[in-house]
Structures are given as structure tokens and as C-alpha cells.
Design brief:
- By secondary structure, this protein is of the alpha+beta class.
- The protein folds into 2 domains: 281 residues, Naphthalene 1,2-dioxygenase Alpha Subunit, Chain A, domain 1 (Alpha-Beta Complex), CATH 3.90.380.10; 115 residues, Rieske [2Fe-2S] iron-sulphur domain (Rieske Iron-sulfur Protein, 3-layer Sandwich), CATH 2.102.10.10.
- It contains 12 helices and 17 strands.
- Strand 9 and strand 10 form a beta hairpin.
- Helix 3 crosses helix 10.
- The structure holds FE2/S2 (inorganic) cluster and fe (ii) ion (FE2).
- The site of fe (ii) ion has 5 residues, from loops.
- Fe (ii) ion binds next to loops.
Amino acid sequence: MQRLSLSRAPVPAAPVAEGGSGSGSAGDWSKDAAWDATRRPLAEAFGLHPAAYCDPGFFALERERLFGRAWVVVGTAPEVAEPGRMLVRRVGSTSVLITRAGDGALRGFVNSCRHRGTELAEADCAVGGVIRCPYHRWGYALDGSLVSVPRFDDVPRAGFDPADYPLLGVRVGIWGLLVFACLDPETPPLDRWLGDLPERTAGYGFDCWRVCEERGLDVAANWKLISENFQEYYHLAWVHPELAKVSRVSDHYRYQGPGMYCGQTTTPVSGDERDDWLTLPPAVGLDSSDGASGRFLAVFPNGLVSVLPNHAFVIRLEPLEAGRTREHCTFLVPPAADGFTEAAFVSTRAFWHQVNGEDIDIVERAQRGLSQGGVPPGPLSPRFEEPLHRFHNMVADCMTADSLATGLRVPAGDAPGDPERYGSRPNPNPPAIERSRTPGDET
Ligand code: FES
Ligand SMILES: [Fe+2]
């Protein structure tokens, strides 16, 4: 159906990672040589090897080296806004508790009792002051301190001090709509990870947005395929003919500053042929750019955030197996929007689920092709797939770095006036952060 003319430029030899075509030992992927085709300049780079999507050995190593060390999205901010709320989330191979204590502090802990290691909680819940282990009823306050040790003093144990056995801490943080956790104390802080995202999106006032709906979807595809699909609009006209009426290919622009994310924007969101995205009332106080645009951010590694002037659709990717991912989908809207109606939301929601369903169908098909075909990786499109190149290099860095303390490379963003926009024209109505960096370009 698609007749694409590929570049006539000399094509590098098809890359083959160490370990062969799909059956290589997982250990090879921690070596730089396996990522040669990823680390070439965009115009010479190839997609990831099928093993990155299909091989259980790759998946296990990725769980350890990438999800075990990155700042991972574990939820949306409203989920843990209330004191006493506790989330139970998987980060890499570790179960993590995220709590909001009465003092307002957000904290993270390993979900294992300090007595004999029992899982403390199975699912999100409200905690009435103390986290109780179901086994021998040791109790922990929401700040992690051990506050109750039933009958332990029946026969006193010399030198035992409950203060020596708090829950093991995990770093957590919030940006905008997302909650993050990081298992590795060596990983640089969240603000370095996020780069310019907080400033870039400050105009939306995300702190006050509320959740309209949450739902989970199981997808028979690797988590990276879902993220890659989100990052490129190459497929827009063919996979989403209706979406292409409100988010036109010609209205897409770069939205890329420094940080561990891949961004793009649609300006303007169009309402002349379909108005599904515009039926809800917009947030109050947006500037002319935020008020007219759709922002699409793949926050590395597992957060997919779409922000429109009047709602946001967030997908948190939870990798289950090499070829299986759970999508946690959340709709959010700005506060107290006059004119909010369930009917308007139904229209917005239905449109998103149609679009997301089309994306799921195509990524599941991509997964089948990769697992059944095992073909060598193909060339990336310089016009449309620079975000994938950026993303693949983040994956490569996490997989190969000895430590993210020294090995984390937060990629740069577009420079003002940068001619290398990969075929995208300058945004006629750029976000404030880009206007402020381009003197004389005010709109
Ligand atoms: S294992 Fe938790 S109290 Fe014994
Ligand atoms: Fe899509």
C-alpha cells in the first residue's frame, strides 16, 4: 500500500549485533559493539535488532540495566495526591511502594518487610497510618520507619533497635502529570533527567489537573515498539486517516529541548473537518501557542504524554514480557473548566480510543513481523524518524553504561535557528521556551 522511495545514498551494510540474528546471548547487548548501527549518525543509522523486541534474554538484561537504573514512570500525580494513599508498582524486577504521608512528603520504598522479606502490599490502597506486614504484623509508618514489632520482646534480643530496620528507600519524584521512581542511587537526579520539560510545559499548570478516566490495555508488543510508534508521524496518513484531519502531517513541528524525552507538536490542532479533540473547554490562562497546539512527549523510558489545550491522555507502559506490554491509560482535564460535560468528554475519549486502537493493531503486527521474520534492521527515515534515533541511543546508553552516574548522556535539544530540523519547517507559533531563546522571533 505504501510506496516509499528510500534514499539513494549508499546504504551501510545491514548491522548484525554480536551474538547473531536474534539468538545472541543477552550479555552481548551490554557491549558497545552491539550498538554500532544505532550510534551512527541518523542518515546512516538502522533500527534496533529484532532481538531487542523479541528475545527474553534481551528483555531480562533491559529490565536490569535500563529499568533498574532509569527514572521510570510509575503513575500519574493525582493517583498519589492524598495523604495516606499508597501505590504498588513494578520498577524493573523490584516491587516498589509509593506513599504520601501526612506531612505531604512523597516517598518510595522496596515492597518487602525487613523481618523476613514478605511482600507488604499487593495492590494500590489507602493506608490508615501504618503499613502492616501480613506475616508477623511488623508495622511501618508512611515515612518507612519500623514502629511496631509484636511480641519481639517476649525474649529480648540483645542490641535490637527498630530504628535499624526501616523500609529500604527508593528515590521518587514528580513532574507535571507523572510520578517517577529510580532504583539506582547512582543515577543523576530527576531534574537532570527531565531537562527542560518542567520549563517547557510550565504554562499548563499540571499540578491542578484531575483524572477523568483510567483503563488498562494488554498489548501483544514490546514496550519500545509502542513508544517508537508514538514518536513518529510517518504512519499518520495510512494508519490514522481520521486523526490526520485534526493533526495534519503538515502542521507537525519539532518540540525538542535537552532532556531524556522525544517531543513533537501539532500547531494548530485543526477543527474544521473533525472537532473531537476540541469539544472540551480549554484550560484557563494558556498562551497562544499552548492554547492552539497538541504536545506529544515520549518521556524516556516508559511515559507517553499527549497534551491538548483542554485535556491530556497519558499512557504508562509496563513491560510484562519481551512481546507483551500493559498500557495504563489515563485521561486528565484542567481544573474546574466551565462547560465541562460528560458528552464532550465521551467524544474526546472515543476518538482517542479509536486512535490508540489503530496504534495497537499496527504495533502488534510489527511485533509479529519481527518475531516471525527475524529480518535485519532497516534504515531509519531522516525526515521522520529522528526521534527514534534519539530514543534508540538512550536505550543503547542505558544498556552499555557501567554506571549512569558517569554514563548518562542527556541528549541536547534543537538549537535556536538550528538548520537541522530534519525536514520540519519552523513552527509559526512556537512554544514560549523557544520564543525566549530566539530573540526577535516573538509572535
Ligand atoms: S516477614 Fe514481615 S513481619 Fe515477618
Ligand atoms: Fe499512531
